[in-house]
Amino acid sequence: MSKYRSTKSQTQVPDKYASRKKRMDSEQVVKEVKFTMEEQVRQTNFEDSISALFGIPGIGKSMFAAELGLALKEKYQLPYSGTYFIQVDPINHSRKIRMNDELVDTWPTFRHFVDEAEKNPKFVETVKMWVIDTLDGLVPKGISTICSDFGITDLREATRKIGNDGWSAEAWQELKYELRYQILRLAALGPGVLLLSHERYRKVQEGGLEVEKASMDVSNSIYNAIGNDCSIIMRMRLESGRVKRPSKSTPRCLAVLSSLDEDAKENLGVVTAKYENGIVPFTTEREAVDKILACFGTIKTSQKVSKKTVKKPKKVRK
Question: Most buried by CB count within 10 Å: which residue of 49, 106, 198, 276?
């Protein structure tokens, strides 16, 4: 063999390096990784989430949202109201209570408003919560547009097709995804979203029995889709249960319902910790706003310290 060989043979490697190589190839490197999770402080605000409020006409839903805007104005020292109304119905007797609003009387106008809001971050900074007034008014406008996209020019044609509430099943499916997408786009901008709706009774199965429950005045598929995104769902009703048009001094209450989202059900516990069965009594809308906002704030969650040992895979030397 030539003495001018370019590479050294294995027998020429010093003993100390050879033993080290042998040890690394034969043993697994074990490293202990500690995951320490101490007591955490989580800040929750009502105005940072997607919420829903429904009730009979004239109960005070819009006034609640307007008073919420004034409360947020004081809280964050804003020059304007903290809530921005996306007004669907142009004929609303309580419109005079609003400081900021945008008339969205068609579905394309609603989509255009969301597009423009995404392009104007400075405008969004002045808003703490979007208010869609009302969700059940927006749904028919959406289904009309989508039926038109499906080639259904006469809406009476859609009622003859098999589907949810007499509409085309395909059109309702499309509306469900489109509506949820637009609401999530609004929420992704930073402010929360408050969905106002009238109420209706829907049939649900409980313990093998069919019972009627009050819910938002939308189809079951829309309610289930939107309800999964809501952190809190509230029903505004008369404290006595009588159905009549209330005055400013009529005793009312907010019944906080369990959200359809499993991860957000803790918000119900936040309210029930202060009010029995999640029933918040009030006389004026500002009183209701103050009580709801007071339920949210700093929540401490204690978590245990856990340790985990991770074995790294065996190193392979070429």
Answer: 49
